[in-house]
Design goal:
heterodimer; A: six-stranded mixed sheet; five-stranded antiparallel sheet; 0% helix; globular; B: seven-stranded mixed sheet; 52% strand
Chain lengths: 111, 115
């Protein structure tokens, strides 16, 4: 069974902290990975795509370790507005567009 | 910007009713998906479609059907709604911008309550 596993949290951190989420995937054929952010009662929104070893966008850094089959997301200098659930996602493999979603890690940034 | 819209944000239906949820995307995407999301269970794929009139079952298709008559529109049908279909329903679309790229873009969701 193809799965993506995440620590559900919650991660409670103070403003300004650095926080890291890890995620493991079971399908070695997955080539594309994503992090989505989901606010309470809203739809998931794409935060970052990871197609090679990693990606960086401002305070957010994603890293991919294919040998160990895990992806991480690092958030530096956390803001109150970063509070959300972060979904780790892997492409199913092959030429189809199916994605496998983790259940999400909840982050709460406190003042 | 990709825009995915869903016909209703909130819907309340009675047990046994036939329910239609509609999704429209404006990016000429080939792929469209219907998910449901429940607390503790995450996103679960109901049905997907890679082309007009094409449909494939996802992980939990029982009790649902779909229709894709036009590329931009993907409908989810609950033939006879039941209380266990109370959930948040999310539509998504994706297109192959470059080889191997599969980002999905979601609509705002429909929160369906079946009483």
């Amino acid at each position: 069974r193809k799965e993506v596993e995440q620590d559900p949290g919650p991660f409670n951190v103070p403003e300004g902290a650095t926080v890291a989420f890890n995620c493991t995937y079971s399908n070695s054929a997955s080539q594309s990975f994503f992090w989505y952010r989901q606010d309470c009662r809203k739809e998931p929104k794409l935060l970052m795509s990871v197609y090679s070893s990693g990606n960086e966008d401002g305070r957010f850094t994603a890293q991919l370790n294919r040998a160990s089959q895990y992806i991480s997301l690092l958030i530096r200098d956390s803001k109150l507005s970063d509070s959300a659930t972060y979904l780790c996602v892997a492409h199913y493999g092959g030429s189809q567009g199916n994605l496998i979603f983790g259940k999400g890690t909840k982050l709460s940034v406190k003042p | 910007d990709v825009k995915v819209t869903q016909s209703s944000r909130y819907l309340v239906k009675r047990t046994g009713e036939k329910v239609f949820l509609e999704c429209v995307q404006d990016m000429d995407h080939e792929n469209m998906f219907w998910y449901r999301q429940d607390p503790g269970l995450g996103l679960r794929l109901i049905y997907f479609s890679y082309d007009v009139k094409m449909k494939e079952k996802g992980d939990i298709p029982e009790g649902y059907s779909v229709s894709r008559e036009k590329k931009e529109r993907f409908s989810l049908i609950l033939e006879s709604a039941s209380t266990n279909q109370t959930s948040m329903y999310l539509c998504a679309s994706s297109g192959l911008r470059d080889r191997g790229r599969y980002e999905q873009y979601f609509g705002p969701g429909t929160r369906l309550t079946v009483t």
